[in-house]
Amino acid sequence: MLVPDDPRVNNALGMSALASGDNRRARDHFMAATIADPAAVPLFINLATAYRSLGDDAGEESALLGAAQINQREFMPQLRLAELYQRQGKGRESALRWRNVVQMTAGVVDLPPIVSDAVKRGNAYLADHNAQLQGDVDRALGKRISELGPAARRFSACLDYSLGRRKIYTNQCEGVHFPFLPADEYFDRSFFPWLDALEQRAPKIREEALKLLSTNSEAIRPYVHQEAGTPQNKWSSLDQKLDWGACFLWEYGKRNDAVCALCPETAAALEAAPQAIIPGNAPSAFFSILRPRTHIPPHTGVTNTRAIIHLPLVVPDGCRFRVGGETRVWKEGEAFAFDDTIDHEAWNDSDDVRIVLIFDVWNPHLSTEECALLSDFFALTEAKRSP
Questions:
Q1: Predicted confidence band at 131 (pLDDT cuts at 50, 70, 90)?
Q2: What is the average per-residue pLDDT within 12-20?
Q3: 252-282 per-residue burial string, b: 16 or more CB within 10 A, e: under 16
Q4: What is each CA distance from 55 to 15, 61, 74, 94, 98, in whole angstroms?
Q5: Given a cut of 60, is residue 6 above it in pLDDT?
Q6: Rounded CA gap, 241 and 224, in Å?
Q7: Is the pLDDT reported for residue 382 higher than 60?
Q8: For residues 270 and 360, what is the distance between their CA atoms, to the nearest angstrom?
Q9: Which backbone phi and psi does 3 adopt, to 5 degrees?
Q10: Rg (Cα) of the chain, in Å, rounded?
Q11: Is it true that the peptide bond before 283 is cis, omega within 30 degrees of 0?
Q12: Pick from 226, 223, 284, 222: which is nearest to 251 by CA?
């Protein structure tokens, strides 16, 4: 017998009927309970359970959607909808709900077992779903994407983000942030036509670097040097250690004549590059020496007004470099440019040293006039800091 105005009584009677296997009577009681209290999510979940026991997918979906409409942040309606759509083979709908399940628990520690199990199932389903979708995309669009040329990398990043396989990183500038510049992880090589000439010098630059490092070890110093009393942080393991060493040819706009004299080919290559000359700020150029089994933690740079050039000189197997969502392997003699205000890190997992020539130039998306104005701006701010 229904008690239309009392949701608690109808819910109790529905639970009793469900336990005894009288699923139709359970459905009727739960329906009456939701009518009496249309804002109670658990009542709609119970109604969905009764419909599922009856094999009524449409009824179950309606009840679960009713629960979700009350509060889209409720976990159980999203989970039950994900499971329902997965059983029905509705890939798009189930992926959407499983994604909700996973995102709702992101960053939460000590999840209850039922929730932890749901997240594992959700991640497994999404991985399989995305793999199948990627296969469909490759078959349907692969040829057209490959014909995009340099733009293929950008479109592929869009696909990877849509499939949940990568993040989109933005500029994180510790100093000057120039608005509205493209936040591209690796700059397209076409912006730097002079890289070909730089690469032709790579063998001699490599010889100079190896000779310098073997005969003038005093020129190498720790890249990370924190002030005494700095609290423990991600750089502490590298602080004042040569695990990540540097030998500077230019540093904050000042030329190291002694090192440049020992490395004339390298100095000439740097002078031929369109470096940004800003007294007290730029350029900086150095041999970056990463010892075996060393990791440079994720970090971001000072300003997006520059591009950072890497010319790999000595790269044993097991070395790699990540900028944003893309990880690459350095190749000796092949230069590239990236935006260091996008989260990046490096690894040397080999048993040998890794050496890269690193220097900065203007961001290629800046106009000549913007670069000139920035030079004057930096000069003014530097003058203000001087006594």
A1: confident
A2: 95
A3: ebebbeebbebbebbbebbeebebbebeebb
A4: 17, 11, 24, 18, 22
A5: yes
A6: 7
A7: yes
A8: 10
A9: -120, 85
A10: 30
A11: yes
A12: 284
Report the half-sphere exposure of 357 (CA within 13 A, side-chain side).
Answer: 29
pLDDT tens digits, one per residue of 59-103: 999 999 999 999 999 999 999 999 999 999 999 899 999 999 999
- Average pLDDT of 251-262? 95
387, two tokens: 């006594």
Q: Per-residue pLDDT averaged across 199-204, rounded?
A: 98
Strands (E), 204-335: 221-222, 244-251, 254-255, 285-290, 294-299, 306-314, 319-323, 326-328
Q: Which amino acid is at 126?
A: L
CB 331 within 8 A of CB 195: no
**239 contacts 222 by C-beta, under 8 angstroms:** yes
User: Would the pLDDT of 385 be above 80?
Assistant: no
C-alpha span between 214 and 336 (Å, rounded): 26
Query: Which residues, listed in sequence order, are joined to residue 360 by a DSSP beta bridge?
Result: 308
Q: Which residues pair with 242 in a beta bridge?
A: none
